[in-house]
Amino acid sequence: MRTAGRALVAVSCVWVLAGAASVPAQDLPVVRLVATGGTISSRPGSRLTAADLIEATPALRAHVRPEFEQFANTASSALTIGQYLGLAQRLNALFAERADLAGLVVTSGTDTLEELAYFLHLTVRDERPVVVVGAMRNAVTVGYDGPANLLAGFRVAASRESRGKGTLVVLNDEINSAREAAKTDALRLHTFQSRGAGVLGVVDQDRVLYVRAPVKRHSAASEFDVRDLTSLPRVDIALVYQDAPGDVIRAMVQHGARGIVVAAAGAGATSGTQNDAIMEALRAGVTVVTTSRTGSGRVAPRPIAASARAIAGEDLAPVKARLLLMLALTRTSDPAEMQRMFSQY
């Protein structure tokens, strides 16, 4: 049994290498890793660096010429919005400076990976792909999924078919759009899904295979230019729950929020005294975006609400609507323009 297992591994390795054997190393696509940390870099006592991750995934060199750099090395929930801006600026600069790059891979912790990916989807303005990967198990856990996800991410970034599809989330051999990808389970490997929309494609042994493409605006078509930004307006999220007090929303306004995203019940319902507080926020000039806490489904625009600075969040998750509203507030304060953005992105 042990001999048969070794033979199977040997055959698999030969197959992978043979697939790229006819391509000279100098002709392989160049893909650069920009590491930010997360579980994929976690181990007791220290953290894996970008160089360590590349070294732990030798099969990469059968598919790409890998490069790497360390942007950060921390949990995804510890990254700041300032670091989001800095990362987007760095990725834009790499694409501007390096015509030879086929794409970029970014490692992230999975807890807030969907937020980082969507922010890059809106702010990295190039046709070439940005692929965000992570791991659900750390480097000393049985079944560590880091190298497999990293290899799949590099292959997706190297594929010419990935161009024009924006920022992509790749884990568990599945490709999801950053706009729709959501972490749906706290522990399981099969956590990132696009719910009703479905995956964009898969990473199979022989090829990267796409079955659909994103239709919303993103990346090269984005109007959000963050090159000269050093900060973003404050936007908070208010969760709707039974008999919720409006005091929390009033506190957000008092502490300087320029926008508030309401994670509403169903398709837009509030509770308790929240609606009174929302109306006060609107009269104070704060933009309010209504989304759903359900995890899927759409909050449709209402023409009468646009004049009151109330925006429908469409089918965006509350955490993603927050990022879009932050960026929208750097461009305009006109409710109709903001509603256009939420409908297009």
Biggest sheet architecture: 8 strands, mixed
Fraction in helix: 25-40%
- The arrangement of helices and strands along the chain is HEEEHEHEHEHEEEEEEEHEHEHEHH
N- to C-terminal separation?
Answer: 53 Å
Shape: globular
What integer is the average pLDDT? 93
User: How large, in whole angstroms, is the Cα Rg?
Assistant: 21 Å
Give the low-confidence spans: 1-21
What share of the residues does DSSP label as strand, in percent? Answer: 15-25%
- Computed structural class: alpha/beta
- Per CATH, the class of the largest domain reads Alpha Beta
Number of domains: 2
The CATH topology of the largest domain, please?
Rossmann fold
Please give the CATH architecture of the largest domain: 3-Layer(aba) Sandwich
Number of strands: 16
Any idea what the CATH superfamily of the largest domain is called?
L-asparaginase, N-terminal domain
